[in-house]
Amino acid sequence: MNIGLYFGSFNPIHIGHLVIANQMVENSDLDQIWFVVTPHNPFKKKNTLLDNFQRLEMVYLATKDYVKLKPSDIEFNLPQPNYTINTLTYLKEKYPSHVFSPIMGEDNLKGFHKWKNYELILEQHNIYVYPRISEGVVETRFDGHEKIHKVEAPIMEISSTLIRNAIKEGKNVKPLLPENVWEYLDEMNFYR
Q: What is the domain extent for residue 104?
């Protein structure tokens, strides 16, 4: 089985994440996409994150009606901060019959050369990239690389930060979230 790994804080997961994941799984050779809830991204401040299990619960709620989309807590018990290469190595050992392929926005591809052991990731894994509007250019060594697959998808300019800030300001963000995620956030009084 070919599993796409969609890494993120998902703080909170929103419709943009679902649109991208569904587009990727329906328009590539990926069989499933796992939303890997990252406890601590090395590039983000930890104090802005909700509890790991609260974010996992939101991903579960958002994906439960999609057979090809799954929540994953695989990084919760791995050393912190999490590095993609370590997670990929662990998954290959745990699920030797699966093929794992990271999914990233084009904005992340522009900084991919800064990732820990990025050469090894590229040597051992395919990478699926969706379009994003961002500054800078993709390095020529990645442009047209045989292991990097660009998948057409809508450009989603929704961010979890925008949603958190809007909630803090008392704005209605309900249309930006799956309904059951909105209900959970509202009930738990998150981000206020």
A: 2-158
